[in-house]
Design a protein that fits this description.
- It is built from 11 helices and 9 strands.
- The protein is an alpha/beta fold and 264 residues long.
- The chain has 2 domains: 3-160, P-loop containing nucleotide triphosphate hydrolases (Rossmann fold); 173-249, Helix Hairpins.
- The strands form 2 sheets. The protein has a 7-stranded mixed beta sheet with strand order 2-3-4-1-5-6-8, sandwiched between helices. It has a two-stranded antiparallel ribbon with strand order 7-9.
- The structure holds 3'-O-(N-methylanthraniloyl)guanosine-5'-diphosphate.
Length: 264
């Protein structure tokens, strides 16, 4: 049975290097429908049943750039079986911002921490098992450049492909209450695994998502949280993500003593 993988990551995380290494001569290039953003697809050269779509490099699943809109549209409606989220391990904290959003989609996800060679040179240490437990998905170290850890990574992708996955919740208190209220009020046509992602987007007043699902959050629900936290809803969500990331990596990641320059 064929598996549709979406390859997602920040610009400069090594996504193209990984995509080229995985797909080799099987890749073909087109455009995403209606826009002039390049769409690259290919098959995993060791297992042609695994189809890989390379999403544009993005920092967020917000609606502010074409690349973000194209990426999240594919993640939501592209029949994606697995998200392969590639992260620049030498910029862990920043790259995990996108990961927290991907994990809300309710799609089986595998996180590949790239630049293993740089991590080792810097003498940084990452406890991949602990981080995997924290994020609730497999986390594997790779070097796309040196072709390290790729077979193990793809074995994991295959393993999670047909599993059930629940959206990860990183929120608490008033914010979580509001999200739960919004989730309950979503149209019943939205499938269970996607509802949490949509609830977060409606809380952020994401107008593209409002139009796509023809639904809006109750303004009072959002405003009550904004007033009590003295901030706008989008910033509240962003802050919650960074607070979560800081606590998630506290016991999993230690910076080494050496500085090594990277391009990202
Ligand atoms: C240049 N290890 C190391 N050390 N570098 C890696 C790895 C890895 O595992 N994986 C990727 N890179 P892209 P996006 C470059 O191009 O795949 C490097 O945007 C340079 N170029 O080789 O393009 C990769 O698709 C001059 O580096 O990323 C590339 O996600 C000097 O990370 C860069 C040094 O990879 C981005 C590096 C002219």
């Amino acid at each position: 049975m064929s598996i549709q993988v979406a390859l997602a990551g920040n610009p400069n995380c090594g996504k193209t290097t990984l995509f080229n290494g995985l797909t080799g001569a099987t890749q073909y290039v087109g455009n995403w429908p209606g826009v002039t953003v390049e769409k690259k697809e290919g098959k995993y050269k060791e297992d042609k049943d695994i189809k890989i779509t390379d999403l544009p490099g993005i920092y967020s699943l917000s609606p502010y750039t074409l690349e973000e809109v194209v990426s999240r549209e594919f993640l939501l409606n592209g029949n994606v079986d697995v998200v392969l989220n590639i992260i620049d391990g030498s910029n862990l904290e920043r790259n995990l911002f996108l990961t927290t959003q991907i994990l809300e989609l309710g799609i089986p996800t595998v996180v590949a921490i790239n630049m293993l060679d740089v991590i080792e040179k810097r003498k940084d240490t990452i406890d991949y098992k602990k981080l995997s437990k924290e994020l609730g998905c497999p986390v594997l170290p790779i070097s796309a450049l040196k072709n390290t850890g790729i077979k193990e990574l793809m074995a994991e992708v295959k393993k999670v492909a047909n599993t059930q996955c629940k959206a990860k919740n990183i929120y608490a208190g008033k914010v979580l209450n509001a999200l739960n209220t919004i989730e309950t009020s979503l149209p019943s046509s939205i499938e269970a695994s996607r509802r949490f992602f949509y609830a977060v987007k409606l809380f952020e007043r994401d107008d593209k998502i409002e139009a796509a699902i023809k639904s809006k959050a109750d303004a009072d629900v959002i405003e009550t949280v904004e007033k009590s936290m003295d901030d706008d809803s989008e910033s509240i969500i962003t802050d919650a993500r960074y607070t979560y990331i800081t606590s998630a990596i506290k016991d999993c990641y230690k910076k080494g003593s050496k500085e090594v320059l990277t391009t990202s």
